[in-house]
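QA checklist item 7 of 12: single-chain prediction sanity check.
[x] sequence parsed
[x] length recorded as 102
[x] structure emitted
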Amino acid sequence: MDQESRKQADRDIRDAMARLLVAARKTAPSSPPQATSTPPAPVEIAAPVPEPGAAGRKVPVSIRLDADLLAALRGTGQGWQSRANAMLRAAMGLGDGGKKAE
């Protein structure tokens, strides 16, 4: 493709994008939709029954945390993951899992 053909293709793409934007603006609602019904009542979720011997067995997971929270946890030094695990167990009322305190 020669340079003039590329320039024409770029103009065609720009024009097509502009037409798409104009069409999208015409079809978009002027204001966001409003909720018309009340939100559903909260549902209590039963805690899963752990497998026998599951306490103490670590399972690798991927979790998204706020950057400042992660920095604070890591800032506690070596063993921060175990301390985070202990905090989560305490928050969930699961006790210490039979582990000795650090």
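[x] summary fact logged: The chain has a mean pLDDT of 74.
[ ] second reviewer sign-off
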